[in-house]
Fold each of these.
Amino acid sequence: MTVAVEKTERPEKTGPVEPPAPARSVRKVSRSMVVAAILVVWLVLFLVLRGKQTLTLAAADLTDLHRWFNDVNDSIGANRNSNPLFLYFFNEIRLVIDSLVTFVQELISQPSVDRPVPQIGWLGVVGIVGYVSWAVGNWRVALLTVAGFTFLGLQGLWQESMDTLALTVSAVFVALLFAIPLGVWAGLSDRFNRVVTPFLDLMQTMPTMVYLAPLTLFFQIGPSSATIATLIYAAPPTIRITAHAIRSVPETTVEAADSLGATRRQSLMKVLLPMSKRTVVMGVNQTIMAALAMVTIAALIDAPGLGKTVVQALQTLDVGTAFNAGLAIVVMAIVLDRVTTAASAREEAARLSKNRFITWRRPLLAAGAAVTAVLAYLSHTYLWAAEFPGEGSTGSTIRSTADSVATWVQDNLSGVTNAFRDVLTNSLLNPFQALLTDSPWWLVGAALIGLAVVLGGWRAGITTAVCVGLLVATGVWSDGMTTLASTLVATVLVMLLGIVFGVWMGRSALVDRLIRPTLDAAQVMPPFVYLVPFLALFGATRFTAIVAAIVYAAPVAMKIIADGVRNVPATTVEAATSAGCNTWQIITKVQLPMARGALTLATNQGLIYVLSMVVVGGLVGAGALGYDVVAGFSQGQLYGKGLAAGLAIVLLGVMFDRITQAAARRTSA
Amino acid sequence: MTTQTEVPQRRGTPQDSGSTPVISVRRLWKVFGPKADRVPDSEELCGLTRRELMDRTGCTAAVRDVHFDVSPGEVFVVMGLSGSGKSTLVRCLTRLIEPTAGEIVFEGEDIRQADAARLRDLRRRKFSMVFQHFGLLPHRRVVDNVAFGLEIRGMGRAERVKRAQEVVELVGLAGYENSYPDQLSGGMQQRVGLARALAGDPDVLFFDEPFSALDPLIRRDMQNEVIRLHHEVGKTMVFITHDLSEALKLGDRILIMRDGKMVQCGTGDELVGAPADDYVREFVKDVPRGDVLTLRWIMRPPADGDPLDGPELGPDVVVKEATRAVLAADKPVKVVENGKLLGIVGDEEILAVVAGQEGGA
């Protein structure tokens, strides 16, 4: 999931989902009353019709659609090597991707054909990543990279980390190969931009997991499917940001080049591309982070690497191992993020440093390259430089510490955590879930459509109606409603947190400075490392997934709301203060109403983030759609159901996105 | 609407030589909107005002039936308020914006007939343009920005850097070659823009409100710089501005535009002395007339009894410069051209202008 782009793409002038203050106009009062009326009617009918026509489906039950998906899967499996479409298209793609991945893996992570160890051992890899970080970034990130990668080795996870890196690098390489030209095209051509934008929007709304199922259909389970899923998921940020960068080159500059007689090619190569370089690198950063998130989650379809370690540990509730591997993912995420961020800042820095180091830079780079080559050669030739020395003792220390902390927490804090869990579950989650799952499907559907029409207008209503219809057709309606309940509850809590911290950050620059780096760091983490600590606290329940979702989604909501509050003009606040408002009045009567665009945007993003996490929570017993998807990968007869559940997740995502966006547009109009 | 005041001979400007114009524009139209082509062809649509045209056709006519000639070495100023079509006009001249109809003859060649390659070649060698917002490349140093046009042409690195260096010195930026544009002030950035335009040694320089974004003091410096460069390199210049004092200061001739149409085209003293309509009159109202008008504009025919033995002055002497001589003389000054008496100027006439008494022409 990406954030930075969406903030720039979506206009600030949006409105709230919540019914606005009654003082504004008669029409809006009536809108909030209609919402209340819909809810009341729903409650009354729920009490009357409870338990009827709920479309529940037991875990092992299948519908015709699921069986049909299974048949399709089987027939594709049977004809994979005879059907021309597969023979000459999908299989070829798989072959190319497979050879690329195998090549990179043999280079850094897996034993190659005639060698017991990879071509380049740990010393060489550490040398190369350090050198590259220094060359594209600066010496500080190079140090961070060397320390980070050495730490991965000390954790006893060298090979797993290298597998993850190999997959990420391969996927990012192929993704950029397509994404940058497409982005340039979208930047130059309005028509192409109009065509791709809705697709990019949709792709970025989808949780990582839903990409996996359909791809396994075409590319089988394994690293190549994982890489393809990753590159599809990771390409949109670069396409979008490249297009944006090309579009934001000042018109005068392009015109000046034209007036000097530049050809289209010349103005692309000498003006547009150099001037968008910095922004494009930011897109590459987002692509790399998205790829890392996807590679780890692709462990569900048998992608090798750290993700697999985490998934296996989560499934056996082995907190220590999950924590160790999760920590490795975090380390890798931080390193990749810092290096690419430094790369995008480097050009600027070099320009401001008065050219002092320019003369030295070239010889230094050459010397660094020579040292790196020596390290790589050593690691290719000597075993001590090839296999990471030691038994990964740091890793076992981390594991046992995490285990003992988890045990201690379960022994000593279970009173507190269980009470917290039970209060939230019984007072909020259960009633709400009952309302959604125990009402007749048509009642829930009608209520959803009604709310969509009132909040977002007719078009949002029609989209919702289509989504509800298709949700029923997927056959996993009941699981969908369970997921919906968890998502909505978590989003409400996210918004509460977001408003409290967002307003605090928006009003105090100091608090903002203190909190924001943590939020930024939190956003680069792949989603499911969040599950690990909460698994220790709350055990394997849907509650773990909900808390993880709240923690995962809160940073983005806080940042958007903080920016919204900060953007309220200082003069307006000053005017309110001079009129004698106290702090509470300023917040509730000036800052929050004026930041309602940010509030809606935060709701939109919060919903999407929460949904993706709640779904991943299927790994730790959250059940519902996420579990259906996970089960579909591991059990052949549930494959079709998993695919249907993936579709249902897409439908929920589209529904949330359309309603909140329409509501935003509508209240701002 | 258009008045082309023909007053023979003035301030010794280069177009006196009667040579063929560098740029000759005839019936130039630029219409934005759906099916824009039909507007210039239809007599009925041509007659509409801008608003009526918008309502009738959904089109906006940015440039309407403009025609003028620019002589070699002349500084030709196009002046108008924002939305008058002046920036569109200058872009049409180099086809950065494609004109809808009309004829643009540059050194005998109709530019509208040029194909893409020929047009590029013209832009590379014959014209260049200076932009309001500079349009510099932030990732290149000053010298590489200046050399950009030469690079586009395919000139070798050593040669183009040498040439760029000369031009950088010409515009007074020596010592800043290796700076990046964002390290320079606005005025200096525009000098880079000017240098870039000069580097290719073009025949014509186009300026699109080049100094509008600058502070008043810097703007004055830059105007003087343009005057100096004009003296040194003697290029033909087409200069767009919305500032009348800038137009009067720089322009040999000035074209005033309003709503895409030409209102008046003439020298500064013609605009002040004989405004074509109320719009121009309103424009030039606050101009210090003594600085612009020449004796030609204020002389009167000698009446009976006027003593005709006073000192002599030429008809193109500016009033301000003649004031002291006229007031010092006991008798009216004779305005004489080629030994022929054109009229006389006495204290009355001078004081009327200097004290702002003279009723508008």
Amino acid sequence: MTRQRLRRLLQAGLTLGAFSLCFGVVTGARAQTELLNVSYDPTRELYREVNAAFIADWNAKNPQKTIRTIRQSHGGSGAQARTVIDGLNADVLTLALAGDIDAVAERSKKLPLDWQKRLPQNSSPYTSTIVFLVRKGNPKAIKDWGDLVKPGVQIITPNPKTSGGARWNYLAAWAYAEKAFNKDEAKVRDYIAKLLANVPVLDTGARGATTTFTQRGIGDVFLSWENEAFLALKEFGEEKFDIVVPSLSILAEPPVTIVDGNVDAKVTRAEAQAYLDFLYTPKGQAIIAKHYYRPRNPEAADAKDIARFPKVELITIDAAFGGWAKAQPVHFGDGGTFDQLYKPTR
Amino acid sequence: MSDASLPLQAEDLEPARAARHVSGESRLVQWSLVAISLAFLCLFLFLPLITVFVEASARGWQAYREAILEPDALAAIRLTLLVAAIAVPINIVIGIAAAWAIAKFEFRGKSLLTSFIDLPFSVSPVISGLVFVLLFGAQGYFGLWLKAHDIQIVFALPGIVLATIFVTFPFVARELIPHMQSLGSAEEETALTLGASPWRTFLTVTLPNVKWSLFYGVLLCNARAMGEFGAVAVVSGKIRGLTNTMPLHVEILYNEYMGAAAFAVASLLAGLALVTLALKTLLEWHFADAIAASRRH
């Protein structure tokens, strides 16, 4: 290669590099009406449909101030909270439980500590609960929480440290044990320890755990969000799995909020607020029921969607555990009951 | 003529056969070694690679096209190429500078520098990602300053580029250092004595001598830059259509029960790697003489 050609090559390379650098900075900084919804694992399909419906709705009403797109980011609820604390510019947070949004409020100071009072019904436009997904025909005869601690039963549940769903699983099991053993703390602890000993692998998020159970075929029973269990039936066929509804479960309230610090910086408060309000509208509630979440306003949803939800006795976190602010440190903080009772070595 | 050459050929063959026996191993050992290597390649390389393409085409060409042309997938492809287009040139410059310094000069801490260049290879990619979050995240050391100046590094393009540069940094330097060291600095010294400027010496003597090593380094660097998962996953924030690279997109699609689409994007990623490989082979074949010449130095 001659010197000239080399030099030309070098020049071309440098120009390309400089150009792409500029291009990157420009695209990174360009102002667009775009919202970012940072959510937990199982809501991918739900928000894809909500986003399309909301954008159509908003753009029809606000033709001079349209929303181009709503971006989605999904992961384990706790992990997602962590990235927002570390600076991910979420306009709205739609996480699995209030405790994770509390953590964002405390550590990033981008939203007030009483954020949960700002929207109706604990800021949760939908609820869900925890059910069991078992292999077709229920070969291990798992009917209720008590059956989970039988020897030889493999349980799939994600890691409560990173997954919101797993924390609901854990507390539902705890609530069952308190009822079954008449609040005898030693027996409750023994039950939970036995249950955890039957867990072969802890995934970081609900979706990873679903994949472990459904696609990798590990485990006899999967402690799952109700919506995630229904979705698995839909994706893989009802001939592969059964849903088992335990005698008692927990009312899971996945809350939503705007992140004040971010929407004010991005000037998207009006859009973000309208987006969350949309979830409470009849249209929003109908989409919610369609994706197997329990709507707050069942009348708004298709009766056929509502009929799919089994009746189950649901305890609330406020009544049984005194709210997330109490339950989080006691059970999932450093050295909490989960740390005390989970022994990964087998 | 032909009568005379025949016995000569036969004689030539004999020493060759003898030489093969001199290596000591029996045929059995030779063949079993070949068989083991082939079995290993099949199990760990060809089989997974074929699976990717088979799964990708499982739902037909139409589904494949749709998976690739879906806006989030296109955005992921664009982002991956953009990140490589920024990270690779930067690593070329830094890699050449580092290799040059190590191969041609003597200075204190040279061996330390050599070890440091390997650091990204020995550190887990998760840590490579986390350090940038710790430095540039909202709670990080520069978090407040960056926020005050409205600069977003992690969970945006700059963070992904930084993590990619960090992880792929050693490839160019690692290829160049041994080659430059084996060349010594005699030719450069000659050029300098004859009055060439240092810059000209570099462009006309050093660079042409090592261009093949540089080229390999760039190819490897590029392949890794496009394929990096761990470090990028930590700093990406996983915003679809914005900070999702191809490897991350593959995982997301798989988790969304869209196996065929996941493998379609995966096959494209694997395809890019294969193109890189083909390019390398083609150039090696085309410039076989030039490469041999540069290696002889």
Amino acid sequence: MESLSNRKKEVSNKEMTFLESIYLPAVFSGMSKTLKHAFRKPVTIRYPDEQREFAPVYRGMHVLKRDEQGRENCTACGLCAVACPAEAITMTAAERKKGEEHLYREEKYASSYEINMLRCIFCGLCEEACPKEAVFLTDRIVPTNFERDTFVYGKDKLVEDVDNRVDITKRQNTGKRGNK
Amino acid sequence: MVKVTIDGVEIEVEEGTTILNAARQVGGDIVPPAMCYYSKLEGSGGKCRTCLVEVAAGSEKDPRPMPKLVASCSTQVQHGMIVKNASSERVKTGRAGVTEFLLANHPLDCPICDQAGECHLQDLGFEHGKEATRYREERRTFDPIDIGDKIKLHMNRCILCYRCVYTANQITDQRVHGVMHRGSHAEISTYIEKAIDNDFSGNVIDVCPVGALTDKTFRFKSRVWFLKPMDAHRDCPTCSGKAVVWMFGNEIYRVTARKDKYGEIETIDGKTAWICNTCRFETKEVDKWNVEGPRLINRHSVISQNHYTLQNPLNNNTKNIQ
């Protein structure tokens, strides 16, 4: 019958020639390949002494950004949560009170914002959905832990430190977001 | 009865019908959008100009085309009239221009706005607007005004459609708010910060096409697309008691009137189903409502996102799709 996948191979059972039957040419050609590679630069690296560079668009642990004046960008609009295919993001919104203008950029802010890192599949749709440039994925790796509860990251872990900013310029300069 | 052709669809309507209502009788894509016209409010319409259509032939007697685009909500049909809406390039560019004007002073604070997801200006901008703004000037802003503890007024978002004014005029016995000043200074306001506290005043929230008037008891509580709208009714001495409760789990987050696909409050038993403030603001306990079941939501609407409920494809009851 005709193969539908068109990947069927006919197996032949032809006799070996004399050169093939003594195997030596094949052994030498194989060994020469091995020797060539023995003097080449290794393709592996000695982790963890050495670490590979991350791709500029690597999708690791999230960060909630602040603006230049240190105010939180997130307004708890919920677009990241609705975009999230894994339903990993939850938040509650609150109204900014008088005197909090230096903490939050807009009238509304996220009083709590949680990402469940066990649910998260690091697809980056939250970053794409965010209209306020608040949530970004970074090249940081979510640390391992034995307790499930510790993987629900709240604002304490997600919001960047005012004095110790998380650099995301690399991913902003890549792709269509950077070209705008 | 007069015969009109809208986008190639011939329909017979009663004399005196507006082009917009004739198109609505046909339904579908040929219905022009309307930001200010509200069929349940007398005298509304003619302000926002989003419903502009091209009249290719005025009538059978006088088949000359109308020189300018006309507002379909306030132009009556004539026998033999040929109207072009979706099929007209002029209408497309005209509507894009109107959208740009409506958005010129709009703050575009959708991430904060509670109306986001059910906002007609969002839909209009999505369908007819441009991606970028050409407006360089500073946007018009107003000082916030307190109009009571139940309704929040965001004057910056207002497009001056006058719907709320007509609502207060026509369904309540005293109107305490209106449009102040003229031209580009016009704004919705109350006389000297007077609170709006009529039994039916909450309906101005439902008629508002944008997020200018929003529910203070729902303010920043959730987003519409996280909630599940359910049809519900209760025995109410003041109003019909037929409403939509927006639930999250087993909790009612807000109550609105039942709206049809044009965003207008439905007519139930021959009457427009306005709901009273007690139902809207003060009845948020589940046991006070008889929840009938989930409301049909257009599956392209953001409100139906992530609810993972299978719509019954055999159910053709699309009447109340919002």
